[in-house]
Design brief:
With 294 residues, the protein is α/β, with parallel strands linked by helices. The chain has 10 helices and 16 strands. Helices cover 33% and strands 20% of the residues. The structure holds 3,4-dihydroxybenzoic acid.
């Protein structure tokens, strides 16, 4: 059973990527995920950032709520951390305040990674993320495309996803990654106070999966570039659902919290069994099936 897939020019041994932000700050933690088809780094910017205070992550009934605040050592130090890393494909997640900063960070990380993921969707970091203005997306994507020779993906959240993806696709993005966490909050009713130090955070996990599947379905119907699905995946069935919606590959983040660090090899085994028992020869055969049925 063949699990190979590709996202544009990026070839993967299986469709599973480690999503940005989960156990991916250091070379050693990322190397634990060499079973994945690709690993996405923690988002990195031009300057070192400490991030928000604690609590920065809490478990809710149907998912996780986090607001880390883009902690990172700055791209120059981070490139040293990545040197010599042994994973299948390494994707560098980057953020910036404008086109010039995105292009600069992309150029600095290019030699250490196989592709770039532009983070335009962190739901609580102002213009470093979902607040990055839609009308500036095209200019930023063009600037990064002109600066590097590796594939450039753009990670978007569920809000205004079609308008933002249109800007990215028009400017030459090689793929859209959707979705990021959903802006959310939790209040402790005994103290009457918000629980997260940052008050607002991003919600991930099983609760957001139907939102992600809907976005992937609509994006892959509308645009000719590949879509990578992310949001709430914890099982092979979730992967299949995203791929039938049109995803060429998927990312897993919170799923590691629920199923442990072997989730990538476990899901690969489950995918093979499911595809075999349903008479498929290759995972590529299911991409967009739900769309074609319309
Ligand atoms: C963080 C959260 C995100 O959802 C994201 O896309 C990037 C960074 C964070 O809190 O660090």
């Amino acid at each position: 059973m063949c699990l190979e897939t590709s996202v544009g020019l990026l070839k993967m041994k299986n469709p599973l990527m480690l999503a940005s932000g989960i156990l991916d700050m250091t070379r050693r933690t990322m190397e634990n995920f060499s079973d994945a088809g690709a690993v996405v780094t923690k988002s990195v910017g031009m300057e070192k950032r400490k991030g928000y205070g604690n609590p920065s992550v809490i478990e809710l009934e149907h998912g996780l709520l986090n607001a880390m605040g883009l902690p990172n050592p700055g791209v120059e130090e981070y490139v040293e951390e990545l040197r010599g890393i042994k994973v299948s494909n390494l994707i560098g997640s980057i953020f910036g305040k404008d086109a010039d900063e995105f292009a600069l960070v992309a150029r600095k990380i290019e030699g250490a990674v196989n592709a770039i993921e532009m983070n335009m969707s962190c739901p609580h970091a102002g213009s470093y993320g979902a607040g990055f203005p839609t009308e500036m997306i095209g200019e930023a994507v063009s600037a990064v495309k002109e600066s590097v020779g590796i594939p450039v993906f753009v990670k978007l959240g569920s809000e205004n996803v079609m308008e933002r993806a249109a800007e990215a696709a028009e400017a030459g993005a090689d793929a859209i990654v959707a979705i990021n966490t959903v802006r959310a909050m939790k209040i402790d009713i005994e103290t009457s106070l918000p629980v997260l130090a940052n008050i607002v955070g991003g919600y991930s996990g099983p609760a957001i999966k139907p939102v992600g599947v809907r976005c992937v379905y609509e994006l892959s119907k509308e645009f000719d570039i590949p879509v990578v699905g992310v949001g709430g995946i914890t099982s092979a069935e979730d992967v299949i659902e995203y791929m039938m919606a049109g995803a060429s590959a998927v990312q897993i983040g919170s799923g590691i919290y629920y199923r442990g660090e072997n989730i990538f090899s476990d899901i690969c085994g489950e995918l093979k069994t499911w595809l075999e028992t349903h008479g498929y020869e290759s995972i590529k055969d299911i991409i967009g099936m739900a769309r074609k049925a319309q």
